[in-house]
């Protein structure tokens, strides 16, 4: 828990620019954000795996030219379902609480839906109230609890969003 | 590529290269790959990637960036090897030439080992916790130091015993980390004598304690005994601090040995040792005040975070030495539990083990299931749960004693005589026995895994019901009048079919309830969950009631005539308490469903 109050950046809503992953020049921005904010270290191979195979699923949020948030995802066949997976979601502290994360996730999910995914999943720490609330609002359910999933011994929820089945053509 | 050994030239910055410590041999040679890498840098343009078919997420996540200390376990922190660490004095024997400091540091090592052990139990690797102790990694060299040597031996023997119990219980997923001992020196020659070695040391210190008390009260003892350490004012405190630590280890080892005895024969003895352990843990906690005050220097930082009672950092530990053995994934720094939390952990573990040891080994399955469910409410850790599982299921029998067909027979309210019936050799009944065995094992696992497994398990119970029903209809579908044995077989089938249904609904009920404990339901889903509970409970109550009616019938048919007295009829119409209880649940579930559905509408 942060004790010292974070200075909130003063911004107007339309000032956030959302961009789809555009190439290698975006990679260091994503890596910097994720390395800073998330506890597990990822090798560069991990980043490349996601952004090279599914560039259309990763998005960056810019404010006045500075990258303030990112989402990195994948999708694929998993046990007879075509499923999307949200691997990383980060928004830097001064920009939180403004719906930037929600917007990033929404864009990615929309793309997954258009690509034919039947569902979307991710894991989140059971103590990460912010993430759980965000995904809860989007309609994710807690499909499973994973015991001691993280190295610090914290459990995780597997969150799942089920897309409605495609309408039958009459 | 260069084909001559170039390690003499490999030191780029002019310092004598450490690479000389990894020399080329007859079959290996060092080659300078710098030109190759240099050329490769220009081989790909910005944004290009070579993607092999087997480059999947697992490969990417397991890949390492060489020289990134978070990922590269070959990156040396302090020492290349255990031997180098020892050569550089990381684990001195004796710890200090000053006997007082030596004793003090030994106690620190003991405390830190306890903290490491608790951290291991809680889910970290053995290699990064208990076996981060250099003394433990080279136990033989501690031989001149009786105290350290005996303590390390019993720790090693204890860890081996605990690994054995948890391995036998078969762990799953994240809990698999616990039993990873590859490469660690867990098997020691002579560890079976660890208790006698410990007893000898305990005896000496007891005599030293008596001697110093005698001196203080001006009475002289005939023994000409060397004191534990050189400061007479601290002798009593140190002796006591050591004794409770040694005794705790002794009694804990006994607990494990007793609980291992088959068919629960050692449970009563185990309880006595558990009580002793708890007493010694209290003494250990009390010793902290003395240990913190025996030197003028006080330790820095918050005492509550320290891994030792004295607050000082222990000598002789290096978690990175075993980094290659810690886990399949690259090692990350882990936080060892604080000493206080470690003691708390062991107190809880001992209480959980005590609950297991107090269990009466009830042959009635319903009581057993209730006991296990109740036990799990205190959220016991892996070691306690493994012990419970091994007590319940041994040699394919309940408590190693009751064959599962007999258990099912009793649970299905069949007469005692049928428990040895040949029908148990029937494939479906054998499978049913396995299902009951697996159910008990599943109920001993952690709640998260348990719920997922129970959900899948429902399918197996449904299948066995169908199989049994099919077998029943095939054998007795057309029979009208039948022989005695056929009557018995029919009865067995009927009872057991009913019992299987009851069990299935019980499992469904547990699955739903666990969702609350695991916080899987959002408030918006409660209405739906309670509605499912309502539906399941109605069926469960129905089957339970039928089961009881059928068991009452069995009892009745034993003695009475066919005529029903008014008293009998009255007794029959009374609803058994177990069913009444379920009906209360049904009302609750129904009420909550209605209430929550109104809330949703508003």
Structural features, described:
The complex is a heterodimer of chains A (170) and B (602). Chain A is α+β, with helices and mostly antiparallel strands and 170 residues long. Chain A is 26% helix and 32% strand. In chain A, strands 1-2-3-4-5-7-6 form a seven-stranded mixed sheet, with helices on both faces. In chain A, strand 4, helix 3 (100-114) and strand 5 (119-125) form a beta-alpha-beta unit. With 602 residues, chain B is mostly helical. Chain B folds into two domains: 82-346, no CATH class; 362-554 and 575-601. In chain B, 58% of the residues lie in helices and 1% in strands. Chain B has helices spanning 34-41, 57-62, 82-87, 99-121, 134-137, 146-169, 194-216, 232-260, 267-293, 339-357, 365-376, 382-392, 404-411, 427-443, 447-476, 484-517, 526-559, 566-573, 577-601; strands spanning 393-394, 397-398, 402-403. In chain B, helix 8 (232-260) runs antiparallel to helix 9 (267-293). The longest helix of chain B is centred in the C-terminal third of the chain and has 34 residues, at 484-517. Chain B is globular. The termini of chain B are far apart. The relative contact order of chain B is 0.07. Classes of the chains: A alpha+beta (170), B mainly alpha (602). The A-B interface holds A 23-24, 41-46, 48-49, 52-53, 74, 126, 136, 141-149, 151-153, 155, 157 and B 46-47, 49, 51, 55-57, 59-61, 63-65, 68, 70-71, 122-123, 173-175, 332, 334-335, 446-449, 451-452, 518-522, 525. Chain B: Keywords: Cytoplasm. Chain B: It holds the Pfam family Mak10. Chain B: Its main location: cytoplasm. Chain B: Residues 47-144 form the NAA35-like N-terminal domain.
